[in-house]
């Protein structure tokens, strides 16, 4: 088992990073009438961990006995019927799913499948709670239509079904949904908190972990706890005993983007743009999300620029990312950004150096 | 209903008014519906307004009060966005329901039971135009025996031919006084203690959305016990602390991009919603007195653009960074168009 799973705290009392939130959640579920919840915060900040611990607090160990099911649902989509494949994770008292996986068909998942699940009263009548829980992941990826479809379901069946929604970007969740939940913000852990977690794992694994090395991992993790723990484990495999100066391997794709940025800075020409396109395709094929590529590229470019240019460049990054959302093919927009950058930068070079 | 079900309702449902007369702040619609209860006559209606102002509550209350529990199912059809309401459903389901004649009503139930059916189309703004168009015909065909209640947040999403067939009622955001009195009532029922500062905080952070206010109240009660302070409410509400907003603004005013970028990164790591930040930034900009009106205008324009981008699903970090860089430019009086001469 990977350390990220092995050392995931199982109960609210064991949660270390978001101690206060954990204790608050515990109080929140002492009564039967807790509201729907919306957890939001950056990746790897501990949302899932808290949700799992919360379920365990509500339903006891039975919440951990989950089975994974891969089912195909036939849903009636007006004139025709369509098949939707969906993976669910469920215990006697809860069901977890990621409705966004169905892409543009997500509305049917909400209208047909989720409503059906919400309608059915809890099976386990002798259980402690009079309700069951539906956990929906990545609700920020749901289309507007799908989100609208969720609204009345949240009200109508609320006496025996609670929703726990989870997402990164709460700005993408409609006002109407947010107004129906208690919003729980999960901030990214601070670097000190990450160091403490790493030290805890080190101790459990019986490792000698130099404190400045742990601090470096934390710094490089960008406050992403999952990433920090993964790094620690990778380093452990690469070299042990640890040394303070040991390199912390960057992610492959990040290194690749650093390279792209260097290419762009060296030469601004159609030929170079064409070469860059090849590399961007490479990243996309490897399933690196396009907005992550764009943001990383911006990060690399900003490091190499003068203040004035920075202001201009970050504007265009935002501009093309927005267009990418509205468009269909990500490559066009990333490439457009690169071309725009080249043109600005070249103009700057000519104006400055002639 | 079994007691266990009762007690496990969240407060927003527990305190949903069951009678039209208990709906607060929406006097116009309450007056018309009170009349309906007396005379039985009822127009087609369109309720519109922001979330948590009582639209669904009012529609369900009137339906229940007109027909009572026994014949409710046969007289009221509630369709909302959780139902598929494509054009086919409109053609079949609604028609089927509307077409079955209402039985000669017996008044022994003690309810008015007027001789028509009610079709509630909640969250109607998410219906396609085609489906709405199909409804026109249905409305006309069965006009003697059905009344429609459309409910939506945005009236502009309802096609004109439907809207013009209805009596329109705008549901206003609840005023602070009305909100306070409703909250005080709930506090009394639940045995909570809310000082006057907390009360006004709650009213103001909920921005006229009573559902939100009730959710905050319940959350705060569970987390902090029966004595609730203004601070407790702010902490459950997700409002961004003022110092966070000021820190970003100060970084922008300093003209230092790297500093501003650091603040933005930090803000994202803390997990605050950028959409909320834009609102609070706007308030801060309007109030600040060390920049000119023209600068304020320049900054605000960008806030609006970024807000739209967020609604389209754009990345939060990039949008806030763009806002920050535009604010730097405005504060430092840099030209609007970028030029290479620094
Ligand atoms: N309170 C905690 N104490 C110790 N370790 C934690 C804690 N919270 C999370 N972790 C560790 O961090 C990892 C990432 O957390 P988690 O999966 O909960 O993040 P997440 O917020 O759901 O991220 P994403 O948005 O990317 O899905 C977990 O695998 C776990 O090992
Ligand atoms: N005018 C009101 N009077 C009394 N209670 C209200 C009023 N408006 C809202 N509430 C409270 O808020 C809850 C939600 O109200 P309701 O479902 O009617 O909102 P809505 O206007 O339909 O919102 P949405 O547009 O999000 O569907 C109710 O259960 C009730 O507790
Ligand atoms: Mg997760
Ligand atoms: Mg409603």
TrEMBL record, chain A:
Highest taxon listed in the record's lineage: Eukaryota
InterPro entries assigned: AAA+_ATPase, DNA_pol3_clamp-load_cplx_C, DNA_Rep/Repair_Clamp_Loader, P-loop_NTPase, RFC_lid
Gene3D superfamilies registered for this protein in UniProt: 1.10.8.60, 1.20.272.10, P-loop containing nucleotide triphosphate hydrolases
Location of the protein in the cell: Nucleus
Keyword Transport set for record: no
SUPFAM superfamilies for the chain: P-loop containing nucleoside triphosphate hydrolases, post-AAA+ oligomerization domain-like
Residue ranges of every copy of the AAA+ ATPase domain listed in the record: 33-192
Chief location: nucleus
GO cellular component: DNA replication factor C complex; nucleus
Keywords: ATP-binding, DNA replication, Nucleotide-binding, Nucleus
GO molecular function, one term: DNA binding
Biological processes, Gene Ontology terms: DNA repair; DNA strand elongation involved in DNA replication
Function recorded in the entry: May be involved in DNA replication and thus regulate cell proliferation.
PANTHER family reported for this sequence: REPLICATION FACTOR C / DNA POLYMERASE III GAMMA-TAU SUBUNIT, REPLICATION FACTOR C SUBUNIT 3
Family: Belongs to the activator 1 small subunits family.
Protein name: Replication factor C subunit 3
From TrEMBL, chain B:
InterPro entries per the UniProt record, alphabetical: AAA+_ATPase, ATPase_AAA_core, DNA_pol3_clamp-load_cplx_C, DNA_Rep/Repair_Clamp_Loader, P-loop_NTPase, Rep_factorC_C, RFC_lid
Any one Gene Ontology BP term: DNA-templated DNA replication
Domain of life: Eukaryota
Family: Belongs to the activator 1 small subunits family.
UniProt-listed SMART domains: AAA (SM00382)
Database matches in Pfam families: AAA (PF00004), RCF1-5-like_lid (PF21960), Rep_fac_C (PF08542)
GO cellular component: DNA replication factor C complex; nucleus
Any GO MF annotation of the entry: ATP hydrolysis activity
Principal cellular location given in the protein's record: nucleus
Subcellular location: Nucleus
Keyword annotations: ATP-binding, DNA replication, Nucleotide-binding, Nucleus
Protein's job: May be involved in DNA replication and thus regulate cell proliferation.
The keyword rRNA processing is annotated on this UniProt entry: no
Subunit structure of this chain's protein: Heterotetramer of subunits RFC2, RFC3, RFC4 and RFC5 that can form a complex with RFC1.
AAA+ ATPase domain location: 41-174
Name of the protein this chain belongs to: Replication factor C subunit 2
